[in-house]
């Protein structure tokens, strides 16, 4: 009769085999099997670790739980290590916290490591830098980035490219771009992470020309850019609506196979959507070989902004069926889709569904709900929702209510919303102008004038309305009644000719929103050459027939211009895609994709 099986020996060879198994389970993120092995190690007496061979097991167990997004179990594995923990164990613990959204715990572990007399290394400094960058501004010690930079400078790893890239990335994500650039310029050696970090910093700060310039320099130095670099540049092109440049970057990503990355894919979806080419955005999404939550959210917001509400709902269902758990951005996309279609019941259902996923509504979700209720005229209900918020309503929430009041000419509630908005410390010129135009629309021109005077007395200047059109590699920008463009005479002539056809077709200017109390002819003259109309006029001259005229605007399109462009599309047979700060409008044959609901 064979002898019974003995417990696992503590031999180093056996420990090495178990460690290799843990490494494989970590790579596969096989949580159930890893937990079974953990239990086996506990029963076999291998944990808590005593021998050095057992310490190896505890260390790999720490890494396993970090990769399975269970940092609290990583800490338990760390505590099972024999004292004192090695520098590598400290580094793994710091990385576990930093990679799993616990920056305060990561930085605290880094400080405890230093207090224990363990020196910082090239493995502990990068995750500590990541933790500093990820911390909220309110919780981050003011001098933490510079303190960590100074500490890194005093270690033997002062010239290490990975350490300095982490420090550079930390400065960039903290918004200290001058420090990030100085570190970049002083680096004896740079890698793709260094370049990408600097590009990403400028992109996040909205410094698009600088980001593009650095990207060109990287290409000139033959840097092998990665998917993060390409994703950053595509995001820059999307934010600036640089379609042609973005398309070139897309072509380059195809040649280098970087388009297969879901990070690049999500940026491309946003690029084409923000440039008004939503069908191209859908094609990128459909062709994506790998999808993450980011690309799902990108296509959801594309569907919402272009008024494809049912498509957004269908894709949300498919996302759930694919095993993806929605986050707060997902629900913001869905609420936006409901708002743009006026679907109150569906919006309330998604707002309630957040609790089932243990997601607490943030101010952005409340602003979307206020916008939804306000768009359908349920202003009192929107005000009640604001009063029930568990946090202090910020200016975005009061601004959404103020916009609803403007749409429905509710001057009394507008005055309440504006007062509460100004109490938040907001110096938004848009809020003053909304209040003024609401009074004007309600026929209260004296109050409208007083609202404009209050804005001037506060030293607040009206935000300039801009519209721009990209054609033949050049961006043409216009303001209202602008005559600085080289082809201004042609633009005004073509708009005048089209205007006569529009009038014959039944177009009548809506002057209700003109805040000045002047005669109708003067009001009509002030409306006829708004910035978006000038950009469309140039489009009629230079955009080939059969190609949509794509115009971007930084403010909400006014009611009259919206109606005028519908008539223009009918009288010229041209398709116009107009993006304002609310949504996309596709004008074709006298109709708009928004259904006159925006």
TrEMBL record:
Pfam families xref list: DYW_deaminase (PF14432), E_motif (PF20431), PPR (PF01535), PPR_3 (PF13812)
GO-annotated molecular function: RNA binding; zinc ion binding
Keywords associated with the record: Repeat, Transit peptide
Every DYW domain range: 506-598
Gene3D superfamilies: Tetratricopeptide repeat domain
One GO BP annotation of this record: RNA modification
Coiled-coil intervals: none
Repeat is among the record's keywords: yes
InterPro entries tied to this protein: DYW_dom, E_motif, PPR_At4g14850-like_plant, PPR_rpt, TPR-like_helical_dom_sf
PPR repeat feature ranges: 86-120, 160-194, 292-326, 327-361
Residues in the signal sequence: none
Domain of life where this protein originates: Eukaryota
PROSITE patterns reported for this sequence: PPR
Name by which UniProt lists this protein: DYW domain-containing protein
Organism field: Triticum aestivum (Wheat)
């Amino acid at each position: 009769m064979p002898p019974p099986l003995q417990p696992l020996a503590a031999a180093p060879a056996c420990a090495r085999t178990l460690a290799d198994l843990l490494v494989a389970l970590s790579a596969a993120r096989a949580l159930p099997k890893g937990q079974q092995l953990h239990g086996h190690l506990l029963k076999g007496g291998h944990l808590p670790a005593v021998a050095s061979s057992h310490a190896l097991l505890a260390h790999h167990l720490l890494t396993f739980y970090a990769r399975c997004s269970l940092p609290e179990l990583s800490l338990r594995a760390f505590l099972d290590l024999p004292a004192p923990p090695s520098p590598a164990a400290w580094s793994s613990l710091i990385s576990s916290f930093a990679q799993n959204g616990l920056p305060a715990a990561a930085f605290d572990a880094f400080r405890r490591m230093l207090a224990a007399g363990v020196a910082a290394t090239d493995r502990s400094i990068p995750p500590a830098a990541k933790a500093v960058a990820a911390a909220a501004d309110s919780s981050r010690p003011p001098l933490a980035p510079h303190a960590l930079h100074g500490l890194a400078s005093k270690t033997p790893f002062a010239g290490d490219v990975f350490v300095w890239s982490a420090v550079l990335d930390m400065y960039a994500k903290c918004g200290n771009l001058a420090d990030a650039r100085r570190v970049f310029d002083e680096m004896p050696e740079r890698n793709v992470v260094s370049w990408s970090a600097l590009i990403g910093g400028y992109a996040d700060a909205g410094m698009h020309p600088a980001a593009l310039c650095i990207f060109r320099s990287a290409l000139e130095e033959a840097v092998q850019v990665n998917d993060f670099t390409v994703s950053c540049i595509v995001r820059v092109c999307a934010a600036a609506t640089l379609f042609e440049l973005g398309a070139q970057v897309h072509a380059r990503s195809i040649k280098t196979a970087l388009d297969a990355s879901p990070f690049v894919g999500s940026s491309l979806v946003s690029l084409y959507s923000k440039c008004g080419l939503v069908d191209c955005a859908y094609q990128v999404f459909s062709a994506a070989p790998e999808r993450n939550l980011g690309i799902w959210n990108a296509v959801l917001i594309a569907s919402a902004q272009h008024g494809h509400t049912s498509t957004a709902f269908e894709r949300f269902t498919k996302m759930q069926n694919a095993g993806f758990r929605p986050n707060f951005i997902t629900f913001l996309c869905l609420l936006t889709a409901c708002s743009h279609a006026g679907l109150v019941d569906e919006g309330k259902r998604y707002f309630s569904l957040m609790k089932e996923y243990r997601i607490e509504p943030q101010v952005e979700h409340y602003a979307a709900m206020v916008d939804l209720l306000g768009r359908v005229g349920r202003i009192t209900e929107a005000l009640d929702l604001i009063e029930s918020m568990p946090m202090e309503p910020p200016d975005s929430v009061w601004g959404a209510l103020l916009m609803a009041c403007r749409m429905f000419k509710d001057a009394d509630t507008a005055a309440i919303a504006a007062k509460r908005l100004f109490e938040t410390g907001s110096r938004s010129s848009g809020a003053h102008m909304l209040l003024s135009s609401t009074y004007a629309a309600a026929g209260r021109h004296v109050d409208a004038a007083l609202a404009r005077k209050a804005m001037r007395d506060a030293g607040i200047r009206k935000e300039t309305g801009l519209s721009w059109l990209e054609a033949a590699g050049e961006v043409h920008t216009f303001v209202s009644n602008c005559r600085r463009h080289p082809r201004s005479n042609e633009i005004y002539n073509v708009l005048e000719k089209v205007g006569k056809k529009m009038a014959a077709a039944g177009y009548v200017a809506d002057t209700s929103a003109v805040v000045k109390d002047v005669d109708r002819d003067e009001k009509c003259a002030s409306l006829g050459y708004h910035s978006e109309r000038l950009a469309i006029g140039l489009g009629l001259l230079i955009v080939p027939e059969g190609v949509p005229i794509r115009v971007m605007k930084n403010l909400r399109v006014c009611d009259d211009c919206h109606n005028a462009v519908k008539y223009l599309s009918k009288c010229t047979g041209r398709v116009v895609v107009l993006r304002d700060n609310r949504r996309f409008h596709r004008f074709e044959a006298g109709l708009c994709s928004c259904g006159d609901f925006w």
